[in-house]
Write a structure and sequence with these properties.
The protein has 320 residues and is α/β, with parallel strands linked by helices. It has helices at residues 10-20, 37-46, 56-60, 77-86, 101-114, 128-136, 157-161, 181-193, 281-293, 296-317, and strands at residues 2-6, 26-31, 51-53, 67-70, 90-94, 118-121, 143-151, 198-206, 209-218, 223-229, 237-242, 245-250, 259-263, 269-271. An eight-stranded mixed β-sheet has the order 8-9-10-7-11-12-13-14. A six-stranded parallel β-sheet has the order 3-2-1-4-5-6, sandwiched between helices. A hairpin with an 8-residue loop joins strand 12 (245-250) and strand 13. Helix 8 (181-193) packs across helix 10 (296-317).
Length: 320
């Protein structure tokens, strides 16, 4: 995978050390805004990236680049992905994939037309602990209640209250708790149970954006509560309760660091099958394999999951 990285923000700075160590990833370019080009040049030097540029056309016409990784503010995902697909580049896009399901469906059609791989970078779907939950879910019997709480006081929240609006708190740029922390919860739930029957969202609004909120999902036989908060904190935990036991994830739904398994009338078990590596390593290994093998069927399975998640976000966004 000959990769161009779009963006220089926090997620890119987390990803670059991971990508640099991957034998099947070649870092070919990094894109920034003109005002951040010095930062891009510094990252390029630090991580042996072939070039830094503020000109997207320079990347789209570069024969050394076959894939772009979009790690830009949410409202730019669709535009940048569409341009990449039209240039016959594979696309890995940070969550949330797009602002609407209609945008994602347009990208999916374009990926099919251009024979390109199009996938969403969502860590939990590729973690060993998530696969363990899928494999052992039936052991807790009939699911009754699911609760996911990802509440983390944002490092940008104080500045937001003072009037400094970063993209993470800018509704016009796709900011807010629903599309940020709660998005991981939605992926966690939909990946296990599929699309819900109904969706409703109860947001706490400040300056026109949801700084926290409670998402309610109903399934035919059970109910789900997903809490995402950037304006307050609480123990970060997810619980799946069945009539024969419970599975508790201690930690965030994007890392799934430890699982406690509570089968009825049996001893508690603590599970951790995640290897000792950054949470993004597993997803990028899989993406590199998809692209190397041109595995459109594998990419399509991931896209169908992402579409279900985007449908939830569409429905929940009606409350904003």
């Amino acid at each position: 995978m000959k990769l161009a990285v779009l963006g220089t923000g926090m997620i890119v700075q987390e990803a670059l050390p991971v990508l640099q160590e991957m034998a099947d990833v070649s870092l070919e370019a990094i894109l920034s805004t003109p005002r951040s080009l010095a930062k891009a040049n510094k990252l390029a030097k630090q991580y042996a990236i072939a070039k830094a540029t503020s000109d997207y056309h320079d990347i789209l016409t570069d024969s050394q680049v076959d894939t772009v990784y979009i790690a830009l503010p949410n409202h730019l995902h669709f535009e940048m992905a569409k341009k990449a697909l039209l240039a016959h580049k594979h696309v890995i896009c940070e969550k949330p994939f797009t602002m609407t399901l209609a945008e994602l469906e347009e990208l999916a059609a374009l990926a099919k037309q251009t024979s390109c791989i199009l996938v969403e970078a969502i860590t939990n779907q590729h973690l060993a602990n998530y696969h363990w939950i899928k494999e052992h879910l039936a052991e807790i019997g009939t699911v009754k209640i699911v609760e996911c709480n990802y509440s983390q006081y944002s490092s940008r929240y104080d500045a937001f209250k003072a009037g400094q609006i970063a993209p993470a708190f800018d509704a016009s740029k796709g900011g807010g708790a629903l599309r940020d922390l709660n998005s991981y919860n939605i992926h966690f739930v939909v990946g296990l149970f599929g699309a819900p029957t109904t969706v409703s969202y109860l947001p706490n609004m400040e300056k026109g954006v949801d700084t926290s909120g409670i998402l309610l999902l109903t399934y035919p036989d059970f109910k789900v509560v997903c809490i995402g908060a950037k304006d307050c904190s609480a123990p970060i935990r997810s619980t799946i309760q069945g009539d024969k036991g419970a599975i508790v994830v201690d930690g965030a739904t994007n890392t799934l660091p430890a699982i406690n398994f509570y089968p009825n009338k049996q001893a508690q078990q603590t599970i951790n099958q995640n290897p000792d590596e950054h949470r993004m390593a597993a997803e990028f290994r899989y993406f590199a394999q998809l692209i190397a093998k041109k595995d459109t069927a594998g990419a399509q399975a991931l896209l169908e999951h992402s579409k279900q998640v985007m449908a939830v976000l569409d429905a929940a966004s009606q409350a904003l």
